[in-house]
Amino acid sequence: MGNAVATDNQLVEIAAKVNQRLRITDDDARWLWKNASDADLCSLAGVVRSRFHAPDACTYMVMRIINYTNVCVAQCDYCAFYKLPGADGGYVLSHEDVFAKLDELRALGGDLAAFNGGFNPQLPLSYYCDLFASIRARYGDSIEFYALTIAEFLYLADHAKLSYGETAERLKAAGVRWITGGGSEILTEDFRARHSKFKYTVDEYFFAQRAIVEAGLKTTATMVIGFDETLDERIEHLERTRKFQDETGGLASFLCWTFKPYFTQIGGIEITTSEYLRHLALSRIYLDNIPRIRTSVLTQNERALDGLRFGADDFDLPIEDEVTQKAGATISLDFERILTYARQLGYAPVYRHVANASQ
Ligand code: SF4
Q1: For 201-216, what is each residue's pLDDT tens digit?
Q2: Residue 229 is assigned to a ligand binding site
Q3: Beta strands 219-225 and 178-180: pairing type?
Q4: Is 75 a pocket residue for ligand 1 (Cβ < 6 Å)?
Q5: What residue spans define the domains of the chain?
Q6: 154-176 residues labelled b (16+ CB within 10 A) or e (exposed)
Q7: Among 76, 91, 158, 260, which is best to mutate for testing ligand 1, by the most ligand atoms less than 8 A from CB?
Q8: What's the CATH class of domain 56-356?
């Protein structure tokens, strides 16, 4: 009974902070994760969401991830996608391959592409600049593209022996507007030492992202959960993200998705959708300085839309992503069924077209 009273008091104190637009602490986040009910998390996430969005509002985009190469030297143990240089099955897409994928995207009603490949030592900076400039020349503003993830950007800068600032400027001159926050997974040094020791440190990640913002490019925050990360590691990731946003204001959105373990070196089982949704809510409550919180149809299918009740306001309808599909993700092109589910939940989804949105 005494414990129940203490628990209620803590919830009341945290709720009061959220209602007064005060920030929750790391300890508050830890407490919420361990003790708050789903209903409490939904309610608090709804308070923060309502500062940015009407209760029934949500947006979406039809997009494809273009995996331009699967050749990679990083050897992350959670990856089922990569091939080492010289191994059978390694590939690099030509401009024509990429154009065909973009044309198919447009035919399906989409207008956003996100490039994601590997740390391929055979690809010079000119491959990227030529590819992105040719896309901008061919499609103008009718398509937008996320050019690289931060992780690939780090490798590209190292490989080209250029500073992060110079690399960002070269890409910008080639027509690039976005470098997204992919390759973050869990942003703690311990996590990276355990699973991806060739994929750059957390400090390097944020150093590069700051250079990207300072070059006038847009960027986003991402997170992947469901490996072996601890609660403290999840909260450290959120803490570093919130701090970076305080300092730069450069993060347009936060997208979290779940690890798909199939055919990976570390294997394991997927976390439940319920755990994912609770984390989404916690992220919305904690990241009070990021207006757009995105839920992952790619890894949760239409159940991702339950995330709208847990604080999210935006989602992609993907048509392809080889990286997660290789590890077990399934994609449906029945967009209407997914959108109908959003409507059944009480939301009015609106397409966020790239031509009239800043993403
Ligand atoms: S996750 Fe990315 S960086 Fe890591 S091995 Fe796979 S392709 Fe390479």
Answers
A1: 999 999 999 999 999 9
A2: no
A3: unpaired
A4: yes
A5: 56-356
A6: bbbbebeeeebeebbbbbbebbb
A7: 76
A8: alpha beta
